[in-house]
Write a structure and sequence with these properties.
The chain is 41% helix and 18% strand. The chain is built from 17 helices and 15 strands. The longest helix is centred in the first third of the chain and has 24 residues.
């Protein structure tokens, strides 16, 4: 009995591998209805995207692929991780699921890895922008990338206009010259309007992501993988000293520094921006509509994240969502077909548009929108990157500790970097 089961599994995997070769070599046109030969039955898809967004997209997708049906189950974002773990452990989980980049490490042993023999790495890189590579490991592809949500710089146009600033900064070193113009203080020396929210952790939304962006712009990948093993590389020296990068970040909350612009007295950075007490807010593309809703009369625009002037490349952080195939799928062949078609048909484009963010596929990003916001999101998607976060909650605590130890002078910036690297490394031990 055991031998028969192993043979069945082997046949399924071989079938999937052959299909993958045909699809991604171009022998089978992607997104074409004829691609579904042999795919039958029902496939269950889990995710946290609202039903009202997914339902019309799936109706179109299922209509175009009548030999099988994809059914969607909306899960709460707060409980998705636990629900998925429990369902997979109990053997009743979905056939496939939307997966964010910060869950890749946790689920890599529960996801069917598409071998590079089926989906060559060069084909992957030619198909998707660099941010999608978070779904790659040394053995193959863990998920088909769908959308990319780049970290952006929102800016208050009225505040810049009032101070004679024609354009938002392109490079980080420009911020020092803007502090005196945009940071306002009352008679008691208290900051009433801030140029930028940096330096703290608790009231700076996406503090970890901002600092990670700076580290990656300096050429440090934070986490690296080699031959299936993961390690923290934050303490490794490179072209730029990461201690200096960390100091650059924390100086914005130091009253003794010329760039002092933020402190703990403010509410969170997004609220301060919407209240028009903050000139620059670093937030994700997906936050646009919530910012508009919070203050419909605010005169703001969006630009790419600032860069290191001397760098020979551009980079911003991003959140990436893909579609992963469960290793425990009971309809594996059809699931494999459905996941590939969803990533490579117009489903991916429609999903990105519905969410107000950018697709990951290079061919879709060439269709630049005319909208002032979306066009910037698409542009940033081309140079978006991320790092393999082993546990979002734990790394939040680690980055918080790094910043607070520097601010309290309990550690030097160099010591804080090394301490953080060590703690990140411990999270990678399985």
């Amino acid at each position: 009995m055991k031998g028969n089961f192993q043979i069945i599994i082997l046949i399924v995997f071989i079938t999937a591998a052959v299909l993958g070769v045909l699809v991604f070599s171009g022998a089978i046109p992607l997104g074409n209805q004829s691609d579904t030969t042999g795919a039958q039955g029902t496939v269950i898809l889990w995710g946290t995207v609202k039903n009202q967004i997914i339902s019309p997209l799936l109706e179109d997708f299922n209509r175009a692929n009548p030999t099988f049906v994809v059914k969607y189950v909306e899960k709460s974002a707060d409980t998705f991780d636990n629900d998925l773990l429990e369902s997979l452990a109990g053997g009743v989980g979905p056939d496939m699921f939307f997966i964010s980049d910060d869950l890749v490490f946790k689920y890599n042993n529960k996801i069917y890895t598409i071998p590079y023999q089926s989906f060559p790495i060069n084909t992957f890189k030619n198909t998707f922008v660099s941010a999608g590579e978070v779904f790659l490991n040394s053995k193959g592809v863990l998920a088909f990338p769908l959308t990319v949500d780049p970290l952006m710089m929102y800016y208050n146009r009225s505040m810049l206009d009032a101070n004679g600033i024609a354009n938002p900064p392109i490079y980080w070193d420009e911020f020092a010259n803007l502090v005196l113009l945009l940071t306002k203080k009352n008679d008691k020396g208290m900051i009433t309007k801030s140029m930028v929210a940096m330096g703290q952790f608790s009231n700076v939304l996406h503090a970890k992501d901002i600092l990670s962006t700076l580290f990656m712009q300096a050429g440090n990948s934070i986490i690296a993988e080699k031959n299936g093993s993961f390690a923290s590389v934050l303490s490794q020296t490179g072209k730029y000293d990461l201690g200096s990068i960390l100091k650059f970040y924390t100086d914005f909350t130091d009253p003794l520094k010329n760039v002092y612009s933020w402190n703990r007295s403010f509410s969170n950075s997004r609220d301060a921006f919407s209240a028009e007490n903050l000139a620059f807010y670093f937030g994700y593309a997906s936050e646009l509509q919530s910012l508009v809703n919070k203050n419909p009369n605010q005169n703001f625009l969006v630009a790419s994240m600032p860069q290191i002037r001397s760098s020979n490349f551009k980079l911003t952080s991003a959140r990436v969502t893909g579609i992963a195939i469960s290793s425990f799928s009971k309809n594996f062949n059809t699931t494999f077909t459905a996941a590939g078609l969803m990533a490579n048909s117009d489903f991916a484009s429609k999903l990105a548009t519905s969410l107000g963010i950018a697709p990951v596929r290079r061919d879709l990003l060439k269709n630049m929108p005319t909208d002032a916001y979306l066009s910037n999101f698409y542009t940033s998607a081309f140079f978006a990157r991320n790092w393999l976060d082993p546990s979002s909650k734990n790394t939040d605590d680690i980055f918080r500790g790094m910043i607070e130890k520097v601010l309290s002078n309990s550690m030097s910036v160099g010591e804080a970097i090394n301490d953080t690297s060590t703690k990140l490394g411990l999270l990678l031990v399985k």
